[in-house]
Design a protein that fits this description.
Strand content: under 5%
Number of domains: 1
Shape: globular
Radius of gyration: 23 Å
Number of strands: 0
Distance between the termini: 63 Å
Low-confidence stretches: 311-320
Structural class: mainly alpha
């Protein structure tokens, strides 16, 4: 029952958020955002997306190598573009990553390791993003700056609890003990290994910077003239909100931008317009993923297994 409620809530909340934004601000900010989009903004989004996608794919390749599964960089880049496109066009915002993990797992004949590689890659990226966001929100003025010391303290306590739980030796051979042992081994070999952690941190930092720059370009395209000292904290808050369940990327992003821009004195309608521009920019930048999907479908349709269909079996009539 709880699982069903959570599933329905995760589907309904993005639409409710959008409905509230439209109710309070009208459709004007959405229309204004679409009207301001131009080729320069789309080209900038495509260039930044290429940089962040390559870094994300390299991070995934590093984690997969730690789990002893092969993954070439060019395949990782293609698969990452595909997962981004699916995340931006399907409900929930994570189905592309699930597909990426399962597809890679099938290629290496170990779906479990494929999914774990994606899980640790995304988790490592989120940890770096949260850390960078907390540091910048502490340093720069933002609508949440006064609450950041409490947030940072809570994150430190949570991190300490995770470290203690990871180091504790599970008793017995229960399923939970096996899961914890596997997770601890993956963490040591795929994320915290000497050859891996620095590259993961650097790649994740570039990804965070690229997404932040994309949002700033979107805000300027929508007509916002605020300085970077105001826009960077807002951009990071928006990035954090985008990990929530969404309707193909829409919903929480528009709600948090409307609130953050309003709280910063920039106007909630400017926030929604910037969010709309950002949404269109990242969708257009993810279109190479659609090309990857089409190419995969064409390869399957042209494969010998599809072309060579077995001949129909004729039933012979037995005459008495």
């Amino acid at each position: 029952m709880r699982h069903q409620l959570w599933r329905w809530a995760s589907v309904a909340c993005p639409f409710v958020t959008l409905a509230v934004v439209v109710w309070r601000l009208g459709t004007g900010p959405f229309i204004d955002g679409v009207r301001t989009i131009n080729a320069t903004a789309l080209a900038a989004a495509a260039g930044l997306a290429l940089l962040t996608t390559v870094c994300s794919a390299w991070r995934w390749q590093t984690v997969a190598g730690g789990l002893h599964v092969k993954l070439s960089l060019h395949r990782a880049v293609a698969a990452y573009y595909r997962s981004q496109f699916l995340n931006l066009t399907l409900p929930g915002g994570v189905l592309g990553d699930v597909h990426r993990g399962i597809s890679h797992g099938r290629d290496v004949r170990d779906i479990g390791r494929g999914l774990r590689a994606v899980w640790w890659e995304r988790t490592a990226g989120q940890v770096v993003q949260v850390t960078a966001t907390a540091a910048i929100l502490l340093a720069l003025p933002s609508p949440v700056q006064s609450s950041m010391p409490l947030v940072v303290g809570g994150l430190a306590v949570l991190l300490g609890a995770v470290v203690v739980a990871a180091r504790a030796r599970p008793a017995g051979r229960s399923a939970w003990a096996r899961v914890r042992a596997t997770a601890a081994r993956d963490l040591r070999e795929a994320v915290l290994a000497r050859r891996a952690w620095l590259g993961i941190v650097l790649a994740s930092a570039v990804v965070v910077a690229g997404h932040t720059a994309t949002f700033i370009v979107a805000a300027h395209t929508a007509g916002t003239t605020a300085p970077l000292s105001k826009l960077i904290p807002i951009a990071l808050l928006v990035m954090m909100a985008m990990v929530l369940p969404s309707a193909a990327g829409w919903g929480p992003r528009e709600g948090i931008t409307a609130w953050a821009f309003g709280a910063a004195g920039l106007g909630a309608h400017h926030g929604v317009a910037a969010s709309v521009v950002y949404g269109v920019m990242v969708l257009v930048a993810s279109l190479p993923g659609a090309a990857v999907l089409v190419a995969a479908w064409l390869r399957r349709d042209r494969s010998p297994a599809r072309r060579e269909r077995p001949a129909p079996i004729r039933e012979e009539t037995v005459h008495a």
